[in-house]
Design a protein that fits this description.
Order of helices and strands: EHHEEHEHEEHHEHEHEHEHEHHEH
Strand content: 15-25%
CATH class of the largest domain: Alpha Beta
Radius of gyration: 21 Å
Helix content: 25-40%
Number of domains: 2
Number of strands: 12
Largest sheet: 6 strands, parallel
Number of helices: 13
CATH superfamily of the largest domain: Glycogen Phosphorylase B
Shape: globular
CATH topology of the largest domain: Rossmann fold
Amino acid sequence: MSLDKILIVRTDRIGDVLLTTPVSTALRHTLPQAKITWLVRPYAAPLLEQNPDVDRVLLDKGQSAGELAAMIEGEKFDAAIVALPRWRIAWALWHAKVPVRIGPASKLYSVLFTHRLYQHRSEGKKHEADYNLELLEPLGVSFKRYPTRLILTDAERKMARKILESHRISFSKPVVVLHPGSGGSSARWPLTHFMVLGDRLQAAGCDVVVTGGPGEDYQYIMIDNMHRIPVFIAAGSVTLRELAALYSWADLIVTNSTGPLHLAVALEVPTVSVYSPIPTCHPRRWGPYPAFLEQRSEHQVLVAPMHKQQREGQEDMGAVAVEGVWRACEARIKRKPAGAGAAKV
């Protein structure tokens, strides 16, 4: 089997793409001669810039299945790994006559794949990144965990530092980023809890920065209700890579289960996160990778309690007390001197 040109398909969100980057790393280690191409949506493509395990990126701009098939056929791929199966993608790969087409056996259209793996991802018994790595088995690549990857340039980090300094961040204190949103991907820890935590962090001598995603304008509520006003980086005011570069200067990031959490993990920035207990949203499936599975202390995960008959959308995220999250933050801040994030250039 010739495996000189391999396509990885992941056409959804930030965290999903980052949790698929170990697939690239595994391929690079096992098949160093292969040219690795990704197919992603345009807004997620910047995550793959500078990644040495990615040779090229193709964009899924929502073109028709026929147009997508024509683009793929012109690349003459030897194999395609579909981490997120969709009818349009499966049909395009089949129509483009990609010889090896690997994907989960979860849909009727999975018959269009040459190799199908029964993973039952909806049960949430394994981590998303592990499910992705398992798809390499038909290519003869043994399962092995690799960290997620996001590579920044020195220029990007220096520009991010200037942005923070323009907001009066001096790096003489620990820098803690709060990201209260979730992009709708999971239940959220209450905004009121984030506000209490933000006040407490500032009272303890930390500089607090609040970030948000598209449509997440909770900063106005926070300004009106917090005793100490943090620095806000408004949604849309920075690019995705600029946001990542800002995170790279943080000593700690506190968030829900969401893409920005995985940005921080890929950048090796310590995190504290609050998760739903529902199997499809549980950290066993979506937690910091591979830190949660390895019980590494730099990434603390708190899970809301599971109540009887509880279903997705009914989670009591507020049951995770501010005091518990504060203690997790305090322990990680004390491990570093003030402004330790600035030492990572």
